[in-house]
Amino acid sequence: MKDETTGQEDAVQDAEACAEALESLDRISLDDVAFDDSSVDVQDEPEIEAQPDDQDTGDVEPAEDEADHEDTESEADDQPGSDTSEETILLDNLPAEDSLTRELPGLGSAPAVDETIAMGDIPLPSVPSAREAEVRHRKMSPKRRNLMVAGVVAVALVAGGAGYAAWNGYRQEQAAVVAANAHTMMSVQIGVHAAGLDCSTGSKIPVQVSGQDSDGSSVSETLYVDEHGRGIKLLPGDYTFSIAASPIAADGTIYTVPTTKAQVTVKNDGQDLRAQATFKLKVPSADTVTDDQIDAAAKYAEEGGASSAAAAKVLQQAATARRDAAVNAVSAQKAQASRDADARHKATDLYQLDIPVEWYGKVATWQNGSTLCIYLGDDANTPLVTLVAVREGESFTPDEGDTVLGAANLGNGYTVYASGPVYPYVVPQTINGRTQNPVSTYPMDTAIELVELTTGNRYTYSQIKNVLVGKDGKADTATKLETDYLAQILLPSIKAQD
Questions:
Q1: What is the pLDDT of residue 66?
Q2: Where are the alpha helices (DSSP H) in 357-473?
Q3: How many other C-beta atoms are found inside a 10 Å radius of the C-beta of residue 266?
Q4: How far apart are CA 83 and CA 74, in angstroms?
Q5: CA angle 218-224-229, nearest 5°?
Q6: How far apart are CA 439 and CA 402, in angstroms?
């Protein structure tokens, strides 16, 4: 019983609230809503023309409209079945099943509310003629007109409100997407070049990242990429990339760390940043790698570049072993070069010199006082050049068949003369059977080697024989080949003895 009474009271309060809302609409001034009455023919309204000039039209029209309203209501009461074009169907004439009164769920039966009181005099829409519409407009009471205007305004507001709500909802949805993306980690790819690096067996490349994300938070961290530059995930923002240290290849290779930095902006997932951020890691000579470089590479490998700390340790050991082996190899090479230099270095009582590298291992020497002879292999009868020291002012005459090939002034009152056969000329003449005082005859392999040693391999034997010398013999051309070469590789090394 108490629920039923409460439901009835709620229904009455709803009806009263509706009536108050409609009454508030009555107070809408017609000045706020513009109507175009210019279409009304003034000749059809003699009452308006008869009004005095000093009478306020606004004071007359409402009374006249009220009178018309009362007449209209009287006619409606007297002619309930009229079928004129100005027929008006009131809401209170609707069948019972179409009544606005209904039972509210859960509230029980509520007392009937007179909809005519709640809805006012709002007529159902009809289709009058243009003339009838104008007359009806004139005869309409301000209250009814205000209600109609309020209804139109309400519909417009509802429609506009629905459109605004839809647009606002779309904007909120897009803003939510942007906000979600701003807090979503984005994968990006950079460019890296490291010859021989396979991160599945070696360590990854540590990339130092600093900057500011879309939230305005500062970022400073180390991320790791593979040999393809993949592995970086960041929130959208502006960042600086640089290589923190070398990775370690499976064979222990350590790379030179580039000093370049790249400024990038992360915007979306899967972004390719290789055009803005590409780093080249070169392979230095293994013997030049330092302990500090290996330690730094191992540190980053252990912190995230390798699959585990144990794997990082194995890579560090490989890098150390590779460096140590390279250092030992270089040391061995230097030791051998030193021994070779000692072997190539020759000295007499007046001067010293170095056997040319190109000749080393292919020649031997004999020495007699200040005279030094360099000959082919183990054949002392095939000298390449003989060096003789002569005091200044004294003349020098080479052995029979030899030619002076150059001289070096020692600066201590002596000059060293270099003499010997002109093999680029002698050898072809001998092979061709010519007998222009050849020193001896030579097998072909010896002939070729003699020509190569005395010309520094600048010409082949065939070129010397067929082009530079020929069958007719061109001693001057052949001699120049040999003298030019000796002037480059032997004579500069002749110095006075300390």
A1: 44
A2: 423-431, 444-455, 461-463
A3: 23
A4: 16
A5: 110
A6: 9
Tens of pLDDT, residue by residue over 436-473, are 444 456 777 787 888 888 888 777 777 776 666 655 55
Distance CA 394, CA 390 (A): 6
Token pair, residue 401, equals 């068949």
pTM of the model: 0.53
Q: What is the DSSP letter of 399?
A: P
**DSSP state at residue 464:** I
d(CA 358, CA 337): 14
- 141: tokens are 């009471």
Residues 6+ apart with CB under 8 A from 136: 86, 128
- Rounded distance, CA 26 to CA 99, Å? 24
- Read off φ and ψ for residue 346, nearest 5 degrees: -125, 150
Q: Could you give the maximum distance between any two Cα atoms of the chain, in Å?
A: 165
CA 16/CA 82 separation, integer angstroms: 33
- Region 369-384 average pLDDT: 89
Task: Report which of residues 132 and 317 the model is more confident about.
Answer: 317
The DSSP string of 200-224 is: TTSPPEEEEEEEEETTS-EEEEEEE
Tokens of 61: 């029209």
Q: Say if residue 183 is exposed, middle or buried (CB neighbours under 10 Å; 0-12, 13-18, 19+).
A: exposed
Q: How far apart are CA 352 and CA 492, in angstroms?
A: 11
Residue type, 379: D
Residue 370 CB burial class (10 angstroms; 0-12, 13-18, ≥19): middle
